[in-house]
Amino acid sequence: MSRSIVPEPVARQPWQIVLPLVALVLLGSAVLYSASGGHLQPWALTHFLRFLVFLAMALVLARIPREVFKLAAYPVYGGIMVLLVLVELLGAIGGGSQRWLNLGFMTLQPSELMKPAIVLVMARFYGSLPAAVTVSWRGLAPAAGLVALPAALVLLQPDLGTALAICFGGGVVMFLAGLPLRWFVGAGLAGAIAAPLAFFAVLHDYQRRRVTTFLDPESDPLGAGYHITQSKIAIGSGGFMGKGFGNGSQSHLEYLPEAHTDFVFATMAEEWGMLGGLFVLIVFAIVLNWGLRVARGSTDRFSRLLAAGMTMTIFFYIAVNLMMVMGLAPVVGIPLPFMSHGGSSMMTVMICIGTIMAIDRWGQRPAGLT
Fold this sequence. Notes:
The chain has helices at residues 8-11, 15-35, 44-61, 66-90, 110-127, 131-134, 137-155, 160-177, 181-201, 205-215, 226-237, 249-252, 264-297, 301-325, 343-364, and strands at residues 92-94, 97-102, 107-108. It is mostly helical. The chain has one domain (21-369). Strands 1-2-3 form a three-stranded antiparallel sheet, covered by helices on one side. Helix 2 packs antiparallel against helix 13 and helix 3 runs parallel beside helix 15. The longest helix has 34 residues, at 264-297. 42% of the residues are buried.
């Protein structure tokens, strides 16, 4: 497009990532339209309008200077920690979990906000830490505390999937910051030893059932294994070309639970087939490659850690959800970015996208103008 025709403010927007995301959200809206029996409400129209609102938020976020991100890191983390404590004291209960705060005009899930916040605060911590200190216990203990506190509060809700996402985001930044590999190996061995004890002493009954169902879903196909069994049937029955838009029997006949949220990929695969699945994977590959490219091109440690951490947070959503719907991981309630219906998860992912956009912009301008 010619700069003489297209206005400068429009031309300089990050269209290379916005356009693929718009295409993916349109597909997600079409899947939600079909899942609701051919109605724009309650899912399809809301899903697309939310994306537009959060895209505007991401574009605003992309204009924020680097120093503001640094100054905001600890206050943002502290504010979300206060919200997590308020969830324990005043939070609304739904589906057996206490995860939400009713603000009147909206219902907020603070644990979702902690996913990008933990990456921000960890990047801030390690971005100002000398390399010699990073590889010492002084580089590990404070960071481990920053991760453990919110993860513990989220586990109390209980929400294992979000707690794992927080630990994953924090762990990625710690690894990329240069902490000794032996510490991660030791943590892995300790986790392997503690896992059997945690299975019986920490996990709730429904969480234990999810693990046993993952190991052998066919043992209870009409009970605990029902979700995974129906998801596999939906994905497999789509074949290469799919059954056609609006012709998915698993979702329309309500065999597939949570067809519009956690298992939206199975709903899509039944109607759009392997071709639809490849399109989704290609868009995700474009997003992740862009994020990692921005991280590699960053000129300072804080920006590199922040961009890589935000990219890997999006990757966690994608990988866990896709593995979950195909029976390769336990069902932990992680939605699929840009396709699953849900405001909190959409907001979280768009915060990550907006932050990466900001870092990309920092690299395109002189340091004094960021």
